[in-house]
Structure formats: structure tokens, C-alpha cells
């Protein structure tokens, strides 16, 4: 058997492996960059709310609201809801979701 076909097969296999690896790296980089951009945007939005005095003052009211399944609605919590919805009018979240987010900050 000639060495030429074996050499050609080995060369093709090594090139195919390199192409697959580089495609995987490009795909992985694109996914990681997309996740990083999303995380940074979310982090920026939540850090601005985390540092806000109105939202911080509503933490106890938010705990009461969540614990009572929406029965207890404190004035500080209502103020925080208003502030959050004013800052992010595109946000489509229920009062319960907002209260839980305030507790998570």
C-alpha cells in the first residue's frame, strides 16, 4: 500500500479536527459574549435599584406583602412600586414579582 493515500487521509482528518475545534470556539465565544452582555445590562439595572433609598426602605414592606400573599400593602412598598415602574416603563411585572425582586436585592 502506498504511503500517499495514508498521508492524505491523515492530513484531511487533522484539518477536519481543526475546523471543528475552531467552529466550536467561535460558537462558544458568541454565546459567552451574549450572556455577558445580558448579565451586565441586568446587573446595571439591578445595581441602580439596589442603591436607591426608596427601594431599600421598602424591604420590610415587601417582606410583609410577600408573606401575606399580597394582603399587606405598606406605603413604602407602594412608593417603591411607583418608582420602579417610572424608571422601567417597559417592565411587565406583577406587584408580587416586584416585591420578590426588592427582597432579592
Automatic annotation (TrEMBL):
GO terms for molecular function: helicase activity. InterPro entries: CHP02448 (IPR012661). It comes from the Bacteria. Residues 1-21 form the signal peptide. Keywords: ATP-binding, Helicase, Hydrolase, Nucleotide-binding, Signal. It holds the Pfam family DUF2388. This is Holliday junction resolvasome, helicase subunit. It comes from Pseudomonas cremoricolorata.
